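[Q] Does anyone have a clean structure-token version of this?
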Amino acid sequence: MVVELNPVDEGGTPKKRRGLILRSASELEEFKELLVDEKLPKLMGMIDSVNPKVEGGRRREEGIIEL
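[A] Here you go.
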């Protein structure tokens, strides 16, 4: 048995195809430690500055190469 963490929108629809899969309490603790790392907000800000903005909850399809 596993737990899948996946944020939902206002209508209850998952925002991601796949969420974060946790198989044990120790995995949860490991992810909690990663999420409170003081470097993470700075890194995410850098990523936000280079990624295209998401409009209306949908990503633009331009520039995506599907393999």
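[Q] Thanks! Anything notable?
[A] The helical segments are 25-35, 40-50.
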